[in-house]
Design goal:
Two copies of one chain form a homodimer. By secondary structure, chain A is of the alpha/beta class. Chain A contains eleven helices and five strands. The two termini of chain A are 14 Å apart.
Amino acid sequence: MSFEPYRSPSTGRLVRAVLFDTFGTVVDWRTGVAREVAAFAAAHGVALDAHAFADRWRALYQPAMEAIRSGQRGFTKLDTLHRENLDEALRHHGINPELVSRESLEELNRSWHRLPAWPDSVEGLATIRRHYIVGPLSNGNTSLLLEMARNAGLPWDVIIGSDMTRTYKPLPQAYLRTAEFLDLEPGEVMLAAAHNTDLRAARESGLATAFVARPTEYGPGQVADLAPEGDWDLVASSVTELADRLVA
Amino acid sequence: MSFEPYRSPSTGRLVRAVLFDTFGTVVDWRTGVAREVAAFAAAHGVALDAHAFADRWRALYQPAMEAIRSGQRGFTKLDTLHRENLDEALRHHGINPELVSRESLEELNRSWHRLPAWPDSVEGLATIRRHYIVGPLSNGNTSLLLEMARNAGLPWDVIIGSDMTRTYKPLPQAYLRTAEFLDLEPGEVMLAAAHNTDLRAARESGLATAFVARPTEYGPGQVADLAPEGDWDLVASSVTELADRLVA
């Protein structure tokens, strides 16, 4: 085969694996969570702004991981953090989680396992996979990412959850341990992400980088991550466009 | 969907994931390794019985892991054990590994990443995957299993290598930590294997069990594992037959 893998200008290495941030980059968490929140609200006869609820729930994500990244709390998987944050989001919206059945809350918490892919994700991943290892490099735990992949048809070769690296991005070990499981040098691994912070940390750990713009991840009023804020190796407006750049 | 997953009589649970021993059960290591050994011998102008060499190399597998299981040695991934054992197998066949280039030895060691699937494996796994999570439950490390999957077209949903559980079968933690990564009860996980020892340990850890007969894994003179030696939940002569039992 005469295919020549993409060589990262920043790492100088041929890229062997293209790994993706998932929430926001590959899947549309806001739409997916809001849809299930709306169904939950209807079933329980409560009035809720489902998108505002999704935003609130998501806003608790970084602080919850920060407690673990800082060492204040031992490693705890994302499903558990999401479940704790759900209680807090409910209270914020005037709902006492103790009055809701445990099963309903567990079910709503699994909305993070059922997020819809952005329209270009599956096709783009399938194309990239023909020539590179593809997988998530996400703060999700393995079972969450696995169920998400089965539901959305994401054609991962391998899933290395944060419960396998036992750390959360953007700490260096999240990137480095993932490369190690793949038996690759950091520079042979590309992170594709819609978030400049994630790409900055990946580059500091020696990975190749690709920015995939997702300007409506946070809804129509999004203000951050509308454009690349570094000289990332590649910049694309979709996973299919990234595939064109990597496979051309 | 009206599909009802298989309920294991021994665990009493519906099976959610069907995980496979790989070497011998899904792939034909003896044929695959012997083929590459023969090519290596031809390239280096040495005379070798390639199948005897493959058998010798494989015979060093359990003792190497035993040093780790017993605690005598820290966890070391299978690629490294295979590489050490290759030197020993070469010496046993009268070849001084120090006279062979490091690249040639590394390349031959990767023959374990390129093992051919048994003729029924890919089709059977694809069928099972329609209704169950499928993955390896192997002593192979993640990168080995990943490359094997890409080469042989094994449609795994997820790969949990022994470098993720950091232990080797048949120690209980190999089975239990795998179920934990999947967020499943042990009884919801089925091990499919051609080896009674593996199934015995899986059952002791509470997993469902399926015997898949591979009577020529060790060549035409195979004497062990020709038949099930326990009342395993299912017994099949191929992965496609196992699929019929699980999906019917």
